[in-house]
Design a protein that fits this description.
The complex is a heterotrimer of chains A (255), B (376) and C (306).
Chain A: E1 7-18, E2 21-32, E3 36-40, H1 47-54, E4 64-72, E5 75-76, H2 84-90, E6 91-94, H3 105-114, H4 121-134, H5 138-141, H6 154-166, E7 172-176, H7 184-197, E8 202-206, H8 210-216, E9 219-224, E10 227-233, H9 234-239, H10 244-250
Parallel strand pairs in A: 3-8, 3-9, 6-7, 7-8
Antiparallel strand pairs in A: 1-2, 1-4, 4-5, 9-10
Helix pairs in contact in A: 3-4, 3-6, 4-6
Chain B: H1 11-43, H2 49-63, H3 76-83, H4 106-112, H5 126-130, E1 135-136, E2 143-144, H6 147-178, H7 181-195, H8 199-218, H9 226-251, H10 254-262, H11 267-278, H12 280-296, H13 299-304, H14 322-329, H15 338-374
Chain C: H1 10-45, H2 51-55, E1 58-59, E2 64-65, H3 68-99, H4 105-119, H5 122-146, H6 159-183, H7 187-195, H8 200-228, E3 239-240, E4 253-254, H9 256-266, H10 270-305
Classes of the chains: A alpha/beta (255), B mainly alpha (376), C mainly alpha (306).
Bound molecules: adenosine-5'-triphosphate (ATP) and magnesium ion.
Residues 47-48, 176 of chain A line the site of magnesium ion.
């Protein structure tokens, strides 16, 4: 594995609460630049909650609160002088269920760009092409850019969402089970994509699929009931985990 | 400042949010304004006798309009005709078709008991006036006894609920559990269609068709009476009760139904003994809202009840409701008179009553419903 | 009931039969009543329904001629009411569904107000219309613009104040309908937009509203159709039995429902007026259901397009 890169995001004793219910307990993680950090764990263990805490998506849910520190580039993202909108522009997100807007492919990609003012047509076209290429979708859709995005297959829709996320040039890309609704071929394409994208982005990936974590990630964290049981280089986690729970889970003896 | 600080102040965002908030507060404002403007006019009543003196004169002059050919019988719709400048000129003929003309016989009987006492009205307290048993607002000696109106409103509402609630609930039970999907797809939209009927159309239907039909069948002395009016109101109540009852019946968890059926209960036993009780708070709410609808409905009451303020509980005799009283008398009342204030007082009562009903359904029924389904 | 119901005693089976029968009877009775209402109205009014009835003004004390001014007045009323009420209702629904926190006192007050408003009897809205719109707002406007509270421009019963009164009356219905449409927009779409760095307002404008426009439109039309037949609330806010003046915002106007009411209760000649009443009923019902069918049509049109 390559040498350590600098730390892009990190947490210190980060805890998260939905009302009275604590969903995350004292999480300490460093997420490295240009690396893929994967989170695995059984359903309901808090993976999505953690991911959504990074770009403050959880702000949308009422009566939630956090304690501890969540830092991106040394800035406390929950700090009072942080603007959520600016923060979210820098941190892209891809959801489990593909969420194309019921608009054309072109409009989907340019959505993020047009939010900050008018852009020239050529500028937009350029971004559409480069984003779709980065998402390995360009060849498949270049002739139907102005057709509805809902006409795409599930796998294509998910790659469109990735293209849409990268169109605004974020620094971090959060992916919450991006392949769970896809067939193996589409999954393969998206995984390939993730490996390519990490050259430009810091990627944080939540997955249920342990092979996937092993294949694409550099670091893996194992969550269990809101606690981060173990966090290490992926190879270490999958070959010689130090905790029994981790071993039980990755060898399928969980439960 | 850091790299995630706002790049712009986003004034637009704040303006948008605050505009939306301000517009949203209009609903509260309207409730407040209804309180202020309806109650304020009514409050004038309580502010001293010199006003009621003036009002008495005003009312007396109003009743002395040349077209007012019957001094004893109070018939509001005749009044409407003579007072409105735009109305047909020949409307006062005695032999014309006027549904309210049928009540001219009993009305003097009710009114005549009152004529002897000629006490000047300023000497009567407001409370004494309101609790009197004669409603005769336009005359030399106006009487504002609310008892007959109260009785009229109550009896028509009771008729409406007695007819409307069981029908609505049973029909809901039928479409929710017994009907085949095909039948349900006909019955449900049809009943919902009834909710879209303007109440003036229902009033017209009762006035022309139901009234004649019921008189032929029952041989009642009065063509228009509380029964006809209550039946009309039930047509407004049914779709309301039906929709809410159906909604709460279908909201009962399927598991409950399956459990009951699994225990060997038949479909109908399950429906009546398990589902209906389980949905009881919702059905109760439906009936409460039905009461509110019947109580406050104006046009049907105005057209089909006969509209005579009589102190009788018989449903075969005419009735006059609070809402219909406002509807028929507000048009020609003298601005600022005591009569005017009392009509607003009636409006305030209607408002308070509907407000209370709503609060009860909101606070009590909904919490009960939630408790029931979530097992808390 | 299945073949296994054979084990029930006969008396129970009879009871069960009656239990279902009673419920079915209730449903059939209601439906039968509605169908016969339609039948009676059509039988009574269909032959009177002609082009001249729809297009001409009434003559001879409304006993002859058509009801065009009433149709026109009602349509105008519905239109102005929608212009006044639908934007306010939509904005309130946006607040309740997009901005409001469940825990906020203000949001709960708005919701309570909307629910309360929905239950207020329409005649009370009528009193409110006279007391607030005509007497307070209207006279106030006259005082401000013409220097006299008695200028009788805004300070009198009129089409405008009727529309405003009905806008208030239909407001809760619009709010509920629009809220339902907004709720139908998947949360994921909102999140996708926000995750791209859109502000809340941008998300509302660019994602939420475009995706709920059909629902908002149909919901509003359905809500507004409630106002089309409402008479009690405008009984003394500006309807007229006949018109000789011109049509204007600050003038009185003719209204189908009120027309029917007056024809039915105060006609000098009932025999002659009855077909007129039936025909007017048909037109009023037609207008109401036309709005409903328009809503259904728009819904199906936009569904197939999406
Ligand atoms: N909006 C919410 N309100 C209350 N509790 C929530 C909410 N969202 C999640 N939770 C709770 O927080 C815990 C963690 O949920 P989270 O969605 O983060 O799990 P997850 O690891 O992503 O699960 P999955 O693999 O199924 O997606 C769960 O117990 C869940 O019930
Ligand atoms: Mg998850």
């Amino acid at each position: 594995m390559a040498k350590e890169t600098s730390i892009k995001a990190r947490t210190q004793t980060f805890s998260f609460f939905y009302g009275q219910k604590q969903a995350l307990f004292d999480i300490n993680i460093d997420m490295h630049e240009n690396r893929v950090t994967a989170f695995i764990g059984p359903s309901g263990c808090g993976k999505s909650t953690f991911l959504r805490s990074i770009n403050r998506m959880n702000d949308l849910i009422e009566s939630t609160k956090h304690t501890g520190l969540m830092e991106v580039d040394g800035v406390d993202v929950y700090g009072s002088d942080v603007d959520v909108v600016t923060l979210r522009r820098r941190i892209g997100m891809v959801f489990q269920k593909s969420t194309p807007f019921p608009k054309s492919i072109f409009e989907n990609i340019t959505y993020g760009l047009t939010l900050t003012g008018k852009k020239s047509k050529s500028e937009l076209e350029e971004v559409v092409e480069s984003s779709l290429r980065r998402a390995a979708l360009w060849e498949e859709v270049k002739d139907r850019l102005h057709h509805s995005a809902l006409g795409l297959s599930g796998g294509q829709q998910q790659r469109l969402c990735i293209a849409r996320a990268v169109s605004v040039n974020p620094e971090i890309l959060l992916m919450d089970e991006p392949c769970s609704a896809l067939d193996p071929i589409s999954t393969g394409k998206v995984e390939e994509l993730i490996t390519q994208l990490k050259d430009q982005y810091t990627i944080v990936l939540v997955t249920h699929n342990m092979q996937q974590a092993a294949r694409v990630s550099d670091y893996t964290g194992f969550f269990l009931m809101g606690k981060l049981i173990e966090f290490d280089r992926t190879r270490t986690i999958f070959t010689s985990p130090s905790k029994k729970e981790t071993e039980d889970y990755i060898t399928g003896r969980f439960g | 400042m850091n790299r995630f600080s706002a790049t712009s102040k986003r004034f637009g965002e704040h303006i948008a949010e605050w505009s939306i908030r301000i517009v949203a507060s209009l609903s509260i404002l309207v409730i407040f304004l209804i309180f202020v403007f309806v109650f304020r006019e009514a409050a004038g009543l309580f502010s001293g006798a010199q006003r009621s003196q003036a009002a008495a004169e005003a009312a007396a002059s109003a009743s002395a309009t040349p077209a007012d050919h019957e001094q004893d019988v109070y018939n509001p719709d005749e009044e409407t005709d003579s007072a409105a400048t735009t109305s047909p000129s020949n409307a006062n003929d005695q032999d014309v078709y006027n549904p309210d003309a049928t009540i001219e016989e009993p009305a003097p009987a009710a009114a005549s008991t009152a004529t002897p006492e000629e006490a000047p009205q300023a000497s009567k307290s407001l409370w004494e006036q309101l609790t009197g048993s004669i409603w005769q607002p336009v005359s030399e000696d106006p009487k504002f006894g609310l008892i007959p109106l109260f009785i009229g409103t109550t009896k028509t509402t009771i008729v409406a609920i007695v007819i409307g609630a069981p029908l609505g609930i049973l029909a809901a039970l039928y479409t929710a559990f017994f009907a085949s999907p095909r039948v349900r797809n006909i019955v449900k939209p049809t009943i919902e269609l009834l909710a879209g009927f303007p109440s003036v159309v229902i009033g017209f239907f009762c006035l022309t068709i139901v009234a004649t039909f019921l008189q032929d069948v029952l041989g009642t002395a009065f063509r228009l009476n509380a029964l006809v009016g209550g039946f009309g109101l039930s047509l407004a109540v049914i779709p309301l009760v039906y929709s809410i009852a159906e909604e709460s019946l279908t909201a009962v968890p399927r598991s409950l139904r399956e459990a009951s059926l699994a225990l060997g209960s038949t479909e109908w036993q399950t429906a009546y003994r398990v589902m209906l009780p389980a949905a009881a708070p919702g059905v109760f709410a439906a009936v409460l809202l039905g009461v509110g609808r019947a109580f406050g409905e104006t046009m049907i009451a105005l057209m089909a009840t006969g509209n005579a303020a009589m102190k009788t509980w018989s449903v075969f005799e005419p009735a006059r409701t609070f809402a219909a009283t406002i509807g028929s008398e507000m048009g020609e009342v003298v601005w600022g008179s005591e009569h005017y204030g009392i009509l607003f007082l009636l409006g305030s009562m209607l408002f308070l009553f509907s407000f209370g009903l709503n609060a009860v359904t909101e606070l009590y029924v909904k919490s009960r419903l939630i408790k029931k389904f979530q097992g808390k | 009931m299945s073949v296994f119901s054979g084990h029930l005693p006969a008396s129970k089976r009879v009871l069960g039969f009656f239990a279902v029968l009673v419920a079915a009877f209730a449903a059939v009775a209601i439906v039968g009543l509605i169908v016969s209402m339609f039948g009676i109205f059509i039988a009574g009014g269909a032959q009177h329904l002609s082009w001249s009835f729809l297009s001409e003004a009434p003559r001879n004390n409304n006993m002859e001629g058509g009801i065009f001014p009433a149709i026109f007045g009602t349509a105008l009323l519905v239109l102005i009411m929608s212009i006044l009420g639908v934007p306010i209702g939509t904005a309130t629904a946006i607040y309740l569904n997009e901005y409001a926190k469940q825990t906020s006192v203000f949001a709960r007050s708005v919701r309570f107000a909307v629910n309360t408003l929905a239950g207020v009897p329409s005649i009370v809205f009528g009193l409110f219309g006279v007391g607030f719109f005509v007497q307070f707002l209207g006279k106030g406007l006259d005082g401000m613009m013409y220097g006299s509270m008695e200028a009788k421009v805004f300070g009198q019963e009129s089409l405008l104040w009727c529309s405003a009164t009905l806008a208030v009356l239909t407001l809760p219905v619009v709010i509920v309908a629009v809220e339902e449409a907004l709720r139908a927009v998947p949360r994921e779409l909102r999140e996708a937009s926000l995750a791209l760095g859109a502000t809340k307002w941008q998300t509302i404008i660019k994602v939420v509203l475009p995706n709920s426009v059909t629902g908002i439109l149909t919901g509003s039309i359905l809500a507004v159709s409630r106002g089309a037949g409402e008479v009690a609330a405008i009984l003394f806010v500006g309807v007229a039995y006949s018109m000789d003046g011109n049509v204007g915002l600050t003038e009185k106007f003719m209204h189908l429902g009120y027309h029917l009411y007056v024809l039915a209760t105060q006609s000098p000649d009932v025999e002659k007026a009855l077909p007129l009443q039936y025909a007017t009923t048909l037109v009023l019902l037609g207008l109401t259901f036309l709005l409903n069918f328009t809503a259904i049509y728009i819904r199906s049109r936009l569904r197939t397009k999406a």
